[in-house]
Design a protein that fits this description.
233 residues; alpha/beta; Rossmann fold; 2 domains; five-stranded parallel beta sheet; four-stranded antiparallel beta sheet; 5 helices; DNA-binding; Response regulator transcription factor; OmpR/PhoB-type_DNA-bd
Length: 233
């Protein structure tokens, strides 16, 4: 599930890209105005509504490129608008407003995957854990972990912020998103499940009493070896 941001100033008339409503991605929409970009929420992919205002969409695309937007940019266009789009717009992809859910989902995956490859940060290895960002997978001592998407996100966040202490509220904001309405109990539940799946390496996620959690980093000779089948628990 990706975090998507839609930039559109269309008034009424239904969703900008109807197929997004049929997918499980988290979608936020803000007006397609330069001033709105200052406090825009973070996103894995940014969609720009170019259905009715090609000139405005082109200008917004260039502003996003100039300000160094990290997320891939995808234009939402009508078939007639395709003829106006060129490389100088600085967008990563275009999609017709009539595109079906499967096509939209595929384009999102490809856009996110290309961006990860471009950034050259597809694998993290630390303290006996290997995390592959491009495939959303992780291994302990070379053995795959069966993680949910949110468990993967939590592990990834911990591993990329080693030794730092985070409160439950901070983890909710960073991993679940600022608009998540659940309580901090969600963090405790996911940490407990993640520790159980880490097995011998459960101590990597440490509890800081009355504060929150942190990712403990160990030297390779300090990491517990994989437990052989039949060993005592």
């Amino acid at each position: 599930m990706a975090q998507l941001l839609v930039l559109s100033s269309a008034q009424g008339g239904g969703p900008v890209l109807p197929s997004l409503e049929l997918l499980s991605h988290r979608v936020r929409q803000i007006p397609a105005e330069a001033a709105q970009l200052v406090n825009a929420p973070s996103a894995d992919v940014i969609f720009i509504d170019a259905r009715a205002d090609l000139v405005g969409a082109k200008s917004l695309s260039k502003i996003l490129n100039t300000t160094g937007a990290d997320a891939p940019l995808i234009l939402i266009v009508t078939e007639g608008g395709l003829t106006a789009v060129s490389t100088d717009w600085g967008v990563d992809d275009v999609i017709l407003v009539t595109a079906g859910p499967a096509e939209v989902d595929a384009r999102i995956r490809l856009a996110v995957g290309r961006k990860s490859q471009d950034q050259g940060s597809s694998r993290i290895q630390t303290s006996g854990i290997s995390i592959d960002e491009s495939s959303y997978s992780a291994k302990v001592h070379g053995k795959p972990l069966d993680l949910t998407y949110k468990e993967f996100q939590l592990l990834h966040f911990f591993a990329t912020h080693p030794s730092r202490v985070f409160t439950r509220e901070q983890l909710l904001s960073e991993v679940w998103g600022y608009d998540y309405f659940g309580g901090t109990r969600t963090v405790d539940v996911h940490v407990r499940r993640l520790r159980a799946k880490l097995g011998d390496l459960e101590q990597l996620i440490g509890t800081v009493r009355n504060v929150g959690y942190r990712f403990n980093v160990y030297e390779e000779d300090q990491v517990p070896p994989p437990r052989e089948r039949g060993d005592a628990s």
